[in-house]
Amino acid sequence: MASTETSTTTVTSSVKLPDSSFSIKATLDTVPTERYAQPTSGKPVAGRYWKPKQTAKFSSVRNVKELRSSWETKLKEKMEKKKLQEMEKAMREEKRLTKRKAREEKIERQKRNEEYLKKAEVVQEIKNPKKIKKLTKKQFKLLKYVPSVTNKYV
User: What is the pTM of this model?
Assistant: First the structure.
């Protein structure tokens, strides 16, 4: 392998001052020329400064899978797949159980609410059956037959 040597350039400039008879010589040791050998890169045209520079063509980069894999790797993959399937099955079962539980709780809640509504109802028992004959259609529709010990309309 070739070693990379940095070369430096020396620039000498002489400046004559109008008042004096001597000249000032300045010697500058510049930065190694390696830095300037690369093309300068400015702001990307598309403005995507976070994108990395492309070093090779996309078509040249290929990830080729091996034609044959070893028995151990096959077994590992098989075990991983089996574990994943078991985890998925357990998650599905858990989800199904939570849904069932929520559904049952909802039904229980509805039943309780219905019972509370029945308890809260204002009931007026109609003792005289002749009153029922005098009621209009709308009033009759509002009546509810409640089977009780006396079997009367409410």
Answer: 0.40
